[in-house]
């Protein structure tokens, strides 16, 4: 045995010997002397060397050099500079192994928690038992972990040991202390290339990744630290869990696993998280005597950290698009927020839907699970990927196709406008199995066939199947483009095709739709949109119908229409002024027949055609509804519904639309949960329908100081168009409208045509503005109609009966 030679390992002066004792150190200066002295004594008679792999910032290296100079065994030092320390303890050990040419390496801590006297015992075990690995165990035989600094550390150590053994029941069968940092291993049994030591637990890495190893154990007593502080931390805990998950997932979840496999793994992790939550809750309440509420909140953080580590390190191991902090905080936020969602959902299901509470509970868990999985899978843990195009191609778009940030022409509000310049026709859509078709014909001007039932068009339903030939508008269900989540909504126009595609963040499952106008109008709608016919109708179908009608010489004017003894009256207003209430009053109190409440089909000669959609009852419309007309339950529901679907509700929606959110999906979900209050007019007021009528008066109603005035022609057209546009103010339309092409007419041409048609229709109609501060329009309209009727009568009477007295006006 050669005496104390100190060689810096960087000089590569390795020598073959029986054993290399590898000691990772980080700021252990006060332990070096004692450690080397005891080691020297313990290693007497053994052909061994000591190799320190040091990451210290204090004078540990100097102490090693000094002590090593007088040691009986060769002492080498590999000092890693701050830039070389990636991987910490684990990589230090691996590097040490790589610098050894001995038959055995022994790994031990530099703080004397691992008694040097045990080193020869480990080697002896290995020699006599023919083992590959000898683990110094705190948990076998006479072993003792009493040196762990606190009860907490003890629990953590035991817990993580159990966890590791549960994860690798076969490989860790013979190992009671896979967390041990104290072990001997026959160098030849290792495949260094397979070890990835960026965690705390190199032994576990070795046992899990190497081929079958013969493992024996040797009990030892884990001593208290000689000097200095432990480097273990919470962070190490999470890293440990992630490593364990990654280690396990390598064999269980091969890369590129399917969504179903990921979802299953996700569910399994969630289930284990419930166990962790329960154990933590129990410990916090029973052992630490914390109040239940505090304990519950803390326990949730435990299970969140747990789930995160397993999901982040296992299911989604590998490089990710988002940073660690974003992922962790995002995940924690989702978990805590979903806690808040579950309670009201539960209440809703039990109280409103009358579902048994146990089943409701499972439903909320499932709902939360799906939400959490989708968000995690599609948003949090995504890999860095190039921008995807609708076709699902993974290749990045050509430069000019990208929407450059900040270019207002290409980015409207929160929406990306992408112009697809490729010659590829229209993005492929996979059509979904369709329910029987529904057929509608709007006064034989426009026909619609739809896989989704459109309650708004019920009046126009063709009871005996479709008209011969293809419908003007075809609505099919399908999946559009790729299933990838996107950071913002996107409208895509196809330079070489009259088509436009709207896609939201949620990928295929959301409210995506594709309007293909190359041959008629074909709308493909995503599953969520298909399940929300009202949103589909108002945001997509009606807007398209409007311009299709224009192309056929009709205007779909945003106005109500009533028929008073053959005199057509149009009512126009900004949304939520009080149009519907006024219509109801006129019908109830002044007779009159109903053509439409919201939209009226008008031809160039000023003739109106009915468009009777179910009425939406907003809050101020409530007072025009007679209590007796609805059931008690309908009334109760109506109060809630009308609040959500009021102008304020819609304003909230529109404001959300200006933010980067999947607005249609949110809208569809809201409507799904709280359907808008829709009633066929005859449910609200007894009246008759009328199909068509010659219009002679138009009233623009306003909430203002009482006033009646005629409206000049130019201004009238502007205002009517503005009112109509107002009805289509909901976000998606204004984004895709500019891409419309119908019968060869572009959007601007269609609008010009609509204007001309409207001007022609208005030529024979008297238009007046009617302001009222107190919803008094119905009375005034009735009076004004009477007056003009009387005036007309009088002008006749003047000729026929000149003797009539002026007092006769009653
Ligand atoms: N080179 C290097 N780089 N050494 C390090 C680093 C590092 O980043 N971090 C810690 N070390 C050294 C320490 O200087 C010490 O010699 C040894 O690794 C163990 O570190 P401690 O900070 O003392 O860890 P511990 O006592 O909390 O953990 C012990 O128990 C664990 C099981 O509960 C160690 O024996 C672990 O290996 C063991 O897994
Ligand atoms: Mn220690």
Mean pLDDT: 80
How many helices does DSSP assign?
22
SS strand fraction: 15-25%
Q: How many extended strands?
A: 31
* Structural class category: alpha/beta
The level of helicity is 40-55%
Which ranges are low-confidence, i.e. pLDDT below 50, for 5 or more consecutive residues?
Answer: 1-7, 384-410, 796-810
The best one-word shape is elongated
Oligomer: single chain
Q: Please describe the biggest sheet, giving its number of strands, its sense, and whether it closes into a barrel.
A: 10 strands, mixed
Measured on Cα atoms, how large is the radius of gyration?
Answer: 39 Å
User: End-to-end distance, in Å?
Assistant: 132 Å
Please render the helix and strand layout as text.
Elements: E1 6-8, E2 19-25, H1 29-42, E3 48-54, H2 60-70, E4 75-79, H3 88-98, E5 104-107, H4 118-129, E6 133-137, H5 151-167, E7 183-186, H6 202-209, E8 215-219, H7 234-252, H8 259-287, H9 292-315, H10 324-351, H11 357-380, E9 411-412, E10 415-420, E11 429-431, E12 438-442, E13 446-450, E14 473-480, E15 490-494, E16 499-503, E17 513-516, E18 521-525, H12 527-530, H13 533-551, E19 554-558, E20 560-564, E21 567-572, H14 579-590, E22 593-596, E23 599-603, E24 607-609, E25 615-616, H15 632-644, H16 647-658, H17 663-673, E26 678-679, H18 681-684, E27 692-703, E28 707-710, H19 713-727, H20 731-736, E29 741-742, E30 745-746, H21 747-762, E31 766-772, H22 777-800
Parallel strand pairs: 1-4, 2-3, 2-5, 3-4, 6-8, 10-15, 13-14, 14-18, 21-27, 27-31
Antiparallel strand pairs: 5-7, 6-7, 9-10, 11-14, 12-13, 15-16, 16-17, 17-18, 19-23, 20-21, 20-22, 23-24, 24-27, 25-26, 28-31, 29-30
Helix pairs in contact: 1-2, 7-9, 8-9, 9-10, 10-11, 14-22, 19-21
Residues 24-26, 28, 53-55, 88-89, 92, 109-111, 113, 157, 179-181, 201, 230-232 line the site of guanosine-5'-diphosphate-alpha-D-mannose.
């Amino acid at each position: 045995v050669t005496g104390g030679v100190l060689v810096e390992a960087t000089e590569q002066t390795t020598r073959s010997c029986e054993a290399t004792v590898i000691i990772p150190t980080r700021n252990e200066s006060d332990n070096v002397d004692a450690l080397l002295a005891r080691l020297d004594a313990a290693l007497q008679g053994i052909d061994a060397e000591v190799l320190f792999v040091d990451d210290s910032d204090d004078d540990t290296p100097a102490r090693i050099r000094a002590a090593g100079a007088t040691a009986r065994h060769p002492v080498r030092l590999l000092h890693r500079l701050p830039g070389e320390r990636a991987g910490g303890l684990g990589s230090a050990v691996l590097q040490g192994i790589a610098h050894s040419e001995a038959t055995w390496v022994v790994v031990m801590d530099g703080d004397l928690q691992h008694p040097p006297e045990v080193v020869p015992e480990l080697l002896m075990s290995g020699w006599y038992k023919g083992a590959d690995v000898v683990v110094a165990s705190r948990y076998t035989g006479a072993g003792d972990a009493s040196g762990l600094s606190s009860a907490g550390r003890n629990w953590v150590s035991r817990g993580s040991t159990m966890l590791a053994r549960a994860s690798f029941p076969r490989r860790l069968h013979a190992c009671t202390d896979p967390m041990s940092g104290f072990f001997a291993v026959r160098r030849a049994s290792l495949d260094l290339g397979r070890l990835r030591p960026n965690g705390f637990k190199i032994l576990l890495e070795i046992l899990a990744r190497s081929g079958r190893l013969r493992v024996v154990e040797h009990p030892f007593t884990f001593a208290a630290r000689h000097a200095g502080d432990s480097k273990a931390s919470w962070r190490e805990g999470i890293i440990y869990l992630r490593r364990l998950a990654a280690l396990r997932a390598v064999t269980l979840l091969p890369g590129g696993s399917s969504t179903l496999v990921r979802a299953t793994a996700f569910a399994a992790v969630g289930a284990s998280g419930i166990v962790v939550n329960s154990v933590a809750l129990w410990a916090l309440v029973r052992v630490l005597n914390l109040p239940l509420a505090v304990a519950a909140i803390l326990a949730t953080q435990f299970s969140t950290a747990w789930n995160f580590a397993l999901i982040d390190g296992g299911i989604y191991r590998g490089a990710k698009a988002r940073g660690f902090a974003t992922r962790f905080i995002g995940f924690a936020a989702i978990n805590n927020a979903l806690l808040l969602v579950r309670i009201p959902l539960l209440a809703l299901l039990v109280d409103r839907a009358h579902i048994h509470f146990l089943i409701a509970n499972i439903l909320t868990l499932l709902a939360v699970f799906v939400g959490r999985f989708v968000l995690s899978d599609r948003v949090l843990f995504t890999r860095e990927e190039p921008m995807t195009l609708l076709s699902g191609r993974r290749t990045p778009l050509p430069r000019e196709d990208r929407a450059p940030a900040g270019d207002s022409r290409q980015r409207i509000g929160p929406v990306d406008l992408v112009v697809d310049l490729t010659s590829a026709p229209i993005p492929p859509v996979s059509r979904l199995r369709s329910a029987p078709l529904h057929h509608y014909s709007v006064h034989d001007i426009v026909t619609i066939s739809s896989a989704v039932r459109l309650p708004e068009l019920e009046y126009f339903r063709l009871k005996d199947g479709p008209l011969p030939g293809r419908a003007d508008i075809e609505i099919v269900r399908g999946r559009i483009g790729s299933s990838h989540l996107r950071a913002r909504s996107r409208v895509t126009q196809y330079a070489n095709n009259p088509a436009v595609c709207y896609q939201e963040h949620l990928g295929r499952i959301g409210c995506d739709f594709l309007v293909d106008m190359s041959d008629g109008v074909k709308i493909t709608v995503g599953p969520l949109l298909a399940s929300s016919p009202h949103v589909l109708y108002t945001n997509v179908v009606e807007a398209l119908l409007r311009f299709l009608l224009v192309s056929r010489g009709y205007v779909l004017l945003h106005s109500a229409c009533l028929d008073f003894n053959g005199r057509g009256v149009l009512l126009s207003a900004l949304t939520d002024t009080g149009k519907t209430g006024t219509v109801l009053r006129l019908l109830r109190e002044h007779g009159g027949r109903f053509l439409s409440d919201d939209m009226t089909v008008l031809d160039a000669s000023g003739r109106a055609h009915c468009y009777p959609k179910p009425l939406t009852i907003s809050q101020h419309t409530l007072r025009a509804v007679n209590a007796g007309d609805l059931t008690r339950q309908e009334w109760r529901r109506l109060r809630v519904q009308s609040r959500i679907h009021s102008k304020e509700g819609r304003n909230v929606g529109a404001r959300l639309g200006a933010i980067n959110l999947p607005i249609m999906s949110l809208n569809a979900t809201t409507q799904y949960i709280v359907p808008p209050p829709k009633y066929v007019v005859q449910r609200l007021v007894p009246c008759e329908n009328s199909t068509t009528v010659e219009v002679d008066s138009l009233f623009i109603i306003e909430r203002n100081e009482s006033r009646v005035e005629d409206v000049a022609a130019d201004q009238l057209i502007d205002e009517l168009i503005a009112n109509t546009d107002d009805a289509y103010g909901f976000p998606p339309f204004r984004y895709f409208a500019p891409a419309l092409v119908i019968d060869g007419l572009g959007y601007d041409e269609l609008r010009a045509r609509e204007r001309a048609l409207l001007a022609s229709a208005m030529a024979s109609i008297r238009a007046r503005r009617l302001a009222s501060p107190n919803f008094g329009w119905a009375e005034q309209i009735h009076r004004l109609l009477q007056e003009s009727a009387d005036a007309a009568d009088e002008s006749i009477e003047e000729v026929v009966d000149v003797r009539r007295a002026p007092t006769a006006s009653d």
